Amino acid sequence: MCVYRKQVEVIKTILGEHMNIEVNTVDQFQGRDKSVIVWSLVWTQDSGTRCELLRDQRRINVGLTRAKHKLILVGCAESMRAINIMSRVVDGVKVVKL
């Protein structure tokens, strides 16, 4: 699951058509769930935005509640802490530094 459509396109290209993995935006997952969700919370600083989509509490709620069994968040915890609502999310999860 991604925040932006462009991320969806890039990840689909990387995975290839033969992978049986659904890749969509948060909005496209509204009203549906999956056993395991990997949520890409990555954005670029040079995109000209301050990741406005991650400031929307409803969108965050959808993202956090789509997984039935396991939710894996991928992103920079330090960058996410700069967004108030995401700071609370980071504080509530186990952070694994790779």
From TrEMBL:
**Subcellular location field:** Nucleus; Chromosome
A Gene Ontology annotation in the biological process aspect, one of them, is: DNA repair
Which InterPro entries does the record match to this protein?
Answer: DNA2/NAM7-like, DNA2/NAM7-like_C, P-loop_NTPase, SF1_C_Upf1
Gene3D superfamilies (alphabetical)? P-loop containing nucleotide triphosphate hydrolases (3.40.50.300)
Reactions the enzyme catalyzes: ATP + H2O = ADP + phosphate + H(+)
**Every DNA2/NAM7 helicase-like C-terminal domain range:** 2-77
Question: Which is one Gene Ontology cellular component term of this protein?
Answer: cytoplasm
Q: Which GO terms describe its molecular function?
A: 4 iron, 4 sulfur cluster binding; 5'-flap endonuclease activity; ATP binding; DNA binding; metal ion binding; single-stranded DNA helicase activity
Record EC number: 3.1.-.-, 3.6.4.12
- Provide the family line: Belongs to the DNA2/NAM7 helicase family.
Kindly provide the name given to this protein in its UniProt entry: DNA replication ATP-dependent helicase/nuclease
Q: From what organism does this protein derive?
A: Trichostrongylus colubriformis
